[in-house]
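Continuing the series of single-chain predictions for the mutant panel. This is the parent chain; the variants come on the following pages.
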Amino acid sequence: MSVGHYENFPVASIILPRRLREPIAAIYHFARGADDIADEGDAGDAERIAGLEAYRAQLRLAAAGEPPAPQPEAMMFTRLGDVIRHYNLPVQLFEDLLDAFAQDVVKKRYADFPEVLDYCRRSANPVGRLLLHLYGKADAENLRRSDCICSALQLINFWQDIAVDWQKERVYLPQDSLVRFGASEADIAQSKLTPQFLAMMKFEVARARAMLRDGAPLVHALPGRMGIELRMVVQGGLRILEKIEAVHYDMFRHRPILKAWDWALMAGRAITM
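Parent structure:
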């Protein structure tokens, strides 16, 4: 789990135990490939949906130990199938990711926060759950805290990328939040920091921070390098929120990113969690 593209992955991190780097890389490449089908290039919606369904068919073959259909991703699916069977990973979590990517193709607005969270349940939470299964730590409370962390990170990415998503005709801010605070999509379209928009963003940032902190005790349930990795992930999310606040919610002109000194600060904070 980390902040970046593809979101919520610690792929290739030197902190991770060596034995888990390859399985995590296999999961990452699956998710990244599916994300690219849904989001990259100039394909039409129908072509993207068809591509994701073909991906789903390949996933099911791989999970069953069947040879994948000949295509450029065949090797990736073979490796992924080995990982799924070796670690007994729930295939539904991979299917949930595909459902979320397909939803991104056709759904551009969210009525309320529960709708946004339902998207997070499929777009982000499967990542944390898969990692917990790899770690052998997938008990009920750990899964709940992981969901909090992953959903919060997805929300943080949304708030960080409001302007980017607008260019893709997507608004992840709940429509009922816009109404509640008297903000509007015109504020986003015109990059206007109205008092109403600022009040809404203050609320949404606080909501994401509370969710991330609710999940943070999970770091104490994971031993060694896994716990260290998660500490950095949590601190990364919290630091992005601080940077959003530092630019007074002007993500239109100052998209928050983590720089070298932020990583040093995060490392110091991670030690004291």
